[in-house]
């Protein structure tokens, strides 16, 4: 396994749902019966409070079982659009009512909180203590795995990372609403300042005139083999990392990191790739080589060349890179080589899962995710070789999930002439750019350059 320069962890066989509470004889896990009572009492006093705290607390966050039952009763009543009060809650609890303390306990809860105004504080406290208990359960499970030398060390590390990530995601929650007033104000401020729209430039003016890679975009660059998909991906990644100083994560499933770097040096210097391969550089080319390799070495470009990597592993690597160096763009070559979870019987179902995972990754990270994809052979049967969205190989969900789809295909018989066609653009126009491709230096350029 080669890695440049990140550290790679394989996914562990770890499940939150299978963890058991740690066994301890002297110390109880973190909890607050008072906060749980106060939260439940606040809702009984002011039932509308439930809607304010339901996004913070879930059923499993309650330490005391009867409090969890009462909370579940609140939720069920809300789902049925029924009032929450002592009588209705008693009815939903049914046979559990006596075990929950009876109607008398529900009445006592009414007098527990000093005020329903502090319900949010109670809810946050209950959720925080629940997260701490989850951490303890996770620590216990990770300790068990660490003691079991039959479990690969990388799997133990991946399990620990995944568990902490899941806890963090739950703590973040679904996010708050943003008012139209706030969104309009933000838009007005940007327009008045003259700032360009948010997003990453491709470095190709003809493409940038059609779209920018916006945060959260899932962008698919598709083509048949030999049309320069990888070259274009790396050109865009190189532009972002060197010219724009944006941290870029590259996942190269098809070729090793060393080959990627050789191609990038050829692209940036203009030195034909075969001259580098044959070690036949002129003195001038050696000077160019030294300058460019120094620039690349100082860039924020990170290459992971694990040949069979899953979406979970990609997310794990991206989260780690984002925490250490920041992250502005993710590039993956190519989608159909990404590994599936093994849960599906057909590759079509697996690619559907992978495609949706890439879209989710872009939203979670808040960065563009640019992915190459293979086209089916059907495009070869057409006289003009022009691809269609239906040609996206293995899964129709790629077309559905992608925010932007770009096709690269030949322009006539000239191998150097290419079309870059933006066939889908969820938030803007489509269009076609005429480009020249130098196979010797893996470089796309416009006719005007």
Describe the structure concisely:
The chain is α/β, with parallel strands linked by helices and 449 residues long. 45% of the residues lie in helices and 13% in strands.
Folded structure, characterized:
By secondary structure, the protein is α/β, with parallel strands linked by helices. The chain folds into two domains: 28-172, DNAb Helicase, Chain A (Orthogonal Bundle), CATH 1.10.860; 205-446, Rossmann fold (3-Layer(aba) Sandwich), CATH 3.40.50.300. It contains 16 helices and ten strands. A ten-stranded mixed beta sheet has the order 1-4-3-5-6-2-7-8-9-10, with helices on both faces. Strand 7 (404-411) and strand 8 (414-425) form a beta hairpin. Helix 1 crosses helix 5, helix 1 runs antiparallel to helix 6 and helix 14 runs parallel beside helix 15. The two termini are 39 Å apart. The model is unreliable at 1-21 (pLDDT under 50).
Helix content range: 40-55%
Assembly state of the chains shown: single chain
Helical/strand content category: alpha/beta
In terms of DSSP E residues, the strand content is 5-15%
Give start-end ranges of low-pLDDT stretches: 1-21
| Known CATH architecture of the largest domain | 3-Layer(aba) Sandwich
CATH topology of the largest domain, what is it called?
Rossmann fold
User: Any idea of the CATH class of the largest domain?
Assistant: Alpha Beta
Secondary-structure element series? EHHHHHHHHHEHEHHHEHEHEHEEEE
- Look at the structure and name the CATH superfamily of the largest domain: P-loop containing nucleotide triphosphate hydrolases
Q: Using DSSP, what is the number of strands?
A: 10
Mean pLDDT: 82
